[in-house]
Specification:
Blueprint lengths: L4 E6 L6 H13 L5 E4 L2 E2 L2 E5 L2 E4 H10 L5 H4 L2 E2 L4 H6 L5 H18 L2 E9 L10 H8 L3 E6 L3 H16 L4 E9 L4 H12 L6 E6 L9 H8 L3 E3 L10 E4 L4 H5 L6 E6 L3 H17 L8 E5 L6 H9 L4 E4 L3 H9 L10 H12 L4 H9 L5
Parallel strand pairs: 1-7, 1-8, 2-7, 3-6, 8-9, 9-10, 12-13, 13-14, 14-15
Antiparallel strand pairs: 4-5, 11-15
Helix pairs in contact: 1-14
Amino acid sequence: MKKNSFFVASTGQNVGKTTTCLGLISGLKKRFNKVGFIKPIGQEHLEVQEGLKVDKDVVLFKDTFGIKDAYSDMSPVLFPRGFTRDYLDGKISHENLAQRIEKSYQTLSKSNQYLVVEGTGHVGVGSIANLNNAKAAALLKTPIIIIASGGLGSSFDALSLNKVLCDKYNVPVAGVILNRVLPEKKEMIQNYMELALKRWNIPILGSIPYNSFLSRPSMNDYASLLKTDFLSGSKHKLRHFEKLRLVATSLKAYQNLIFPSQLVITPASREDIILATLTKHWDLKIQDRSFDLASGMILTGSTPPSPNIIKQLEKAEIPMLYAPLNTFDVMKKMTSYIAKIRTDDKEKVQAAISLVEAHIDFDQLIECVGNCTFS
C-alpha cells in the first residue's frame, strides 16, 4: 500500500520548515480532496480555547486552509517550559506520549486523503525525552522529507548528520527540499547537490529561491520583540519595510535619506527627525493623495515621545512604537531577530505559499513518498 503521508524535518532551526509546509499543503490540496496537518510534538503554543493549548503552527495551518480536524488531534503533545525536567523526574509517561501521537495520527489518516506531519526543528530535536523526530516518524511509519538551507558543502554536512539518525531508526528519507537558494547559484547548487545525494539515492524534490520579503519582520513582530504597544498607526501593524535606518545624524543629512518603505529608529527626543518625516509624508500626499510613504518609526530612550508628536503621527497613520531602551540595545535586538510567519500576516502567508508551491515537483514527491517502505 502506497504511503499517503510524510514527515517534514529540517537540518536546523530557522531553515524554513513551516514556510515550506504551507506551500506543500497548498499544492497537495490541488491534487487531493482533503489534506490534513499534524504537529505531533509542539513547543511554542497558544491557548485556542479555555484550557486547550496547541502548537502555534497548528493555529496557522488550521486558519489558513480552513482545516476542520480537531485541534487536539492536530497538536497531540506539547513540550512546554519545564517539560524536560518533569520527564526526567518520571512525572511524564513516554508510553502515554507515544500513544497520544499514534492515536491522533490514525484519526487524521482516516479523515484525510493525504497527511503532512511537521516535526520540530532538526531530526534530533526531542531526543532528551526519547521522542525525537526520527523516532516519531518511525512510530508513525512515515517517511521523512528534509528541508535544508540552499548551500552546498555546509548544507550537505548538515544533511549527513540528520540522515544518521534517520538510518538509526530505519526511517527512509523520501527526498530533500533546498530552501532560500540564491537565484544566481540555483542551477549550480542543484546540479552538485544532486551529485552528492546520489550516494544515498535521495532525490531533490524542490529548490526554493531566496525571497527577501519572507525574511522581513512586520511592525507587529517588532512590537512583540520589544514588548511594547503601538502609540500610533496600529492599523498598519502588519506593514513590512524594505529598509531599516538608524538615524543619529544631522537633520540636514537625514532629509536626503527619507525613502518609501523605511523603518526609522531614532531617540524620541529627536523631534526634528520625526517632524521631517511627517513633513515629507504630507508633501508627498499633496502631490498625490494616493501615494503612501509607507514608513514606520521606533522611538527609543528614557524620554517618551510627547503627546503632540504622538497625535501628529496618528493623524498621518504612521505606525510608531516606543521602547524605553537605548538605541544600541534596540538595534541589537532587531538585527538579530528572525521573524516567524504569523497567522494574521496574510500577505506573507500567501507569498510563502505561492513561492514554495511553484518550486516543488509534486508528482515526484508523491511518487517518492508512495514508494517508501519500512523494514
